[in-house]
Batch of 2 targets.
Target 1
Amino acid sequence: MRISSKFVVALFLSIFSITTFGAQVQEDPLERQVLEIAKELRCAVCQNQSVAESNADLARDMRAIIREQLQAGKSKPEIEQYFVNRYGNYILMKPPAEGPGAMLWVMPALFAVMLAFTAFFYLKQRRRGSLPTAPTLSAKDRALVDRARADNQ
Amino acid sequence: MRQPRIVSTTAINLIELGHFSAHLALVVALVQGLAPLLGRGVREPRLAALSINAAVLVFILTSIGAVTLVHAFLTSNFSVQYVAQHSNTILPAIYKFAALWGGHEGSLYLWVWILTLYTLVVAWYGRTRYPAHVPVILAVQGWIMVGFFGLILFLSNPFARLFPIPSDGNDLNPLLQDPAMAIHPPMLYLGYVGFSVPFAFAMTALLTKWKSELWVGLIRRWVLIAWGFLTTGILLGGWWAYYELGWGGYWAWDPVENASFMPWLLGTALVHSITVQDRRQMLHTWNIFLTISTFALSLLGTFLVRSGVLSSVHAFAVDPGRGAYILIFMTTVLAVSFGIFLAKGRYQEAKEEITSFLSRESLFVWNNVVFALACVCVLLGTLYPLALDALYGAKITVAAPYFNTVMVPIFLVVVLLMGIGPLVPWRKANVERLGQRLLLPVLAGVIAAIAMAIFMRPLHWTGPTALGLVIFALGSLIVDYSRAVRVRRTQMRESFWRALLKTVSMNRRHYGGMIVHFGILVVALGLIGSGLFRAESTVTMARGDIVEVGGERLRFDDLQELRRDNYAALQAKLTLIDSGRAIYPEKRRYPRQQEFMTESGIDSTPLRDVYIVLAEPAEGNRWAVHVYVNPLVQFIWIGGAVILSGLLVTLSNRRRALKASLSSEI
């Protein structure tokens, strides 16, 4: 009895090891979706980390919530909205262009236009100064030029 | 079992000697700042020249302070509060040394020590070459020293003592126990503080109406040196983040990173616009403005990181000591320097005019526009959320996705300008000839972009655009270089290889710069590859399991425990099936730390990194493992090395430049 039970255990183990050895593991497809959404959300208790990168408890909980909601068939915007409703826009890694976040999207464009205009007018002004002024002709010279033109025609 | 340590009395005396020296240094720095002003007032140049002696003395005194602090760390003198907070007896000696700048007080001390070092060099070089101006330069630097010594000695003193003396110290942050991190802060500070030299020159120029032809050539080397150290510091920071932080990336647009990136951006603008002034005697006022702004951003960078304002705006704002001091110091520096600039900035008019919109000098102006824009955008994204929080208590997140959206288009313009600029001559370009030269690079760029769009199916429009522009810029570098080589071969009848070398060595200033450009393009390729084509997977694995990520097959082989001097670790072994090489990611536990630290395992080839993080145990003897395949990451570090070598080539130009200036004077 004893020997046979040992044998059974050994056999079981060997089968087990055969089945696990070299098994190709694949990423849980849901995990990828969870991380895609988690990347867009900020870990509220961390410094400048997304929920996908952080190991904080809060981030772990948030990933679990995202997973639950994905399993319940919710879409990415719906899940993001769920977190925005609870934490406000602060939770989004990319600030939306509304409220105080609007400045962040308007100002760079404004800066670009301002700097470009300044540089353009600087160059234009400096260039105008460098062009030689047209010589003023005396009456005698003008007559000569006019005569030459008339001859050409 | 640790025995309570008995601190020898000599150690105690040493640290107090250092403390005393630092106080003396403050006094001497005050002399250094005041003497030239008084000397000018009473028209006594010998009084002004006292600042040179003061600069030497300040350096010696500050060094004594630094040496005693290092001694306290190496001998584990825990009666010094700063040592007790940042070091312990089992820390390896190298990190005991590096712990000197592991915290707030010590890093400020390192900052000011580097400032005294630069000041010493300026005094040494200047005392014979520009004796009339050197006292004023030293005075400006002296006042900055006074500001820093005030902060160090009265509000965050590394020499402060502790009683009763603890038997052992705390720990240096384990993230900092890494060779790259040990030298990252000194490099960064050599960069930041390096910009104080051009700043001091610019202020001196304003105060003494120093003709810009005479001083701009002098600061060019200082700007390049500071830029080089800052670049090294930033690259080391990225390298460290990549190897140590375990999220597979190297740049997170973290405020701490932005703090060092802003002076880098303006410093880059400065490197270029100084060239314009040197060659075409234009942009004096703008250069002074840029110089002041770059140093102001260096100060801002130091304080952003070191004041604690980033972790909590409110803690900073209500701290009656440090916060207020830093705000007042920054405001004073800005008000005084920009005030003097506004009052006296236009002391000199440009001599030459711009001939054409399509000229090297005009493109340099556009380069400055783009870098200034980049800097302003980073500044906005870094400070706006802080200001919003401080003023209205409103919270907003400005992180990597925002910066990527805003900054990537700006960088694309930078690469575009980099492709055109070097082929455009000074004064006025011949449009037809320029078109001929640009034809091949443009074709190469377009073909590369189309090929990527068709064959590699990137997820984002920036991929093909960026690759096209980088190939275009590479093409125009090759066109520029090969044309110069061809000219040498026909005119000097040199062999191909000799012409190849001589082209660079006879014009180090230009081709050193072109090597830097080449390095930047190599970095850009690395950014494109790792930014847009990364493959990643998170799987739970048991022994023997195999996973395939981005075409790499990995087998989880083993898991074992390790013990080291300063930590204990759990080390996994994963084997790349195709090459048979093994990768060893770890989970480490340092004494006195609550959390486990992850130590990523990396297998690098020039074309890709396989980057593995051991995440956490899962049920059934399995482990959650993050696997990243990052293409072309190595290009970033290789490109960095190319940039620095190019910089050295440019800097090695000196003797020839001196001879040339001498001969032109004769």
Target 2
Amino acid sequence: MEDGPLILLIALVAVIAITIGGIWYGRRQSNNLSGWLVDSRRMGPFLVWFLLGTEIYTAFTFQGLAAYAYANGSAAFYNVALNDLAYALGFFLLPAFWLLGKRYGHITQSDFVASRYQSPGLGIFVALTTALIMIGYIDLNIEGLGAVVTVISGGAVTGIWPDILGFLVLGLAVMFGGIRGNAWQSAIKDILMFVAIITLFFIVPTHFFHGFGPMFQAFHQKLQSRMVLPGINPKMGILWLITTVILTSMGQWMWPQWFGISYTARGPRSLKLQAVFMPLYQLVKWMVIVIGFAAVLILGYHKTEGNNVVMMLAGHVLPPWMLAIFTVAAVFSAIIPAGPIIMTSAGLLSRNVYQKLWPKTKDTTTYRLTRGLVLPLTFLALILAEAAPALIVVVLLIAYDFIAQLFPAIVIGGLFWKRATKEGALAGILGGWLVAAWMLVTQHDPWHGINAGFIALLVNLVLFFGVSLLTKPVNRLFLREFFKTVHPESR
Amino acid sequence: MRRMIVIWLLAVLAIAFLYLGASTLWFDTPAPLILGMPPLVFWFLLVPLATPLILGALYLWDKRANPQQAYFTDPPS
């Protein structure tokens, strides 16, 4: 790409400017752990919208989803369905988490688990394990950043350097800006992403097909097998779509960072309002999938690495100034969403592991430790990205297989079923993780067309209910008060 | 509260059916084109537009009838 160095320079300047802006905006709110992690529960609907949006619209959306459509055809639509179904679930779940968080002073998901099951040990276990799973999610964004820089530089900047740049920007922005700074950066990132994707969506058909009608006609004539399920991958049929969407939509709110984001809201009503309007965001994903289909006809199949197709098309059709905006948007789609994930990981390890194991630790020390963990955690993700590079969607789907196993313990036991016990929760989670790991390692995903994580979830449910019924629940009076918060008497 | 939960679950099932049931029953076919688009491409454009209508109706009902509202109301902005 001829203008690659100039575009990268512009992108670098923009990244530095927006990083400093985020640090400046977040500095007043970030002087304690509650302010740094959940903005002291006072964020308005505007910033909460962008915080929620930024976690959905990551490097995965910008690059991974188009790559998936390019490689697998219509199976990519699973991702449109998963988020909308998750928003419908979130309509009740997120306000319920908020209500309990407000009443019992939860800041993290682990606080919620420890409080519901009256078990600091279970809280520590969930904090430690989810913090590790989340490193996979950070890795996904680092890989996305690497793909952007590699394509824009025309292959001149490759290897570890783009990832190191992402590590530094991400680590510094999170450490100094906190969640409020990240929300400000998210607003800019989402607007840039909208502009970039919508522009590409309208230019690609015009430039390569002479309009939308001829483009869809070309899909119909030349990509028929990709326009249906299972498409070109016989493993991804209707059963795979159904089980994957159910698993991932149940898993979406189990990512610990969503608890933090829901706690930032001023009240439950603003969270319900987000659930109503967030599905409109999915139209952007639909556009990205269409761009992925078009890439098969434009670039040829198996002619390029999947993660690069969007940037390659942008490089073909956009003028340099527009490509610069596109690049900044793509870079931010990789960097900004990782912010809440790193913050949550650090918060879980310091507040829910270190402070619980050493209870005399002062809150100020925990806050300093949380910020101090940001760079080491980001560095771990950098190492993972270098050691095991993969198609972005594959990383995401594997992570979902594991995180969704928290659903029975957190949603069924946490919000609906008083009889659930900590032993049942632990047995279900461990059983689910073992089955998921075994199926992935032995390459049984999908198994007879069923998502491996879904099968693990069924095993998890059997263990969760069975062991809970055989063990003793926590104090009945506590449970009555806890559940009354979510299920008050009707007026 | 039970009524609110039942109605919420019905909304979840309706959206799940649109995405998973209707798409596989009636739109998982290469032809005929709908508004010039392959059927699955058309359907996955339409449902994200329909979902806010379902959740919007649920929101309006919830605002009027949800007993949680009395338990912890939003502070004035």
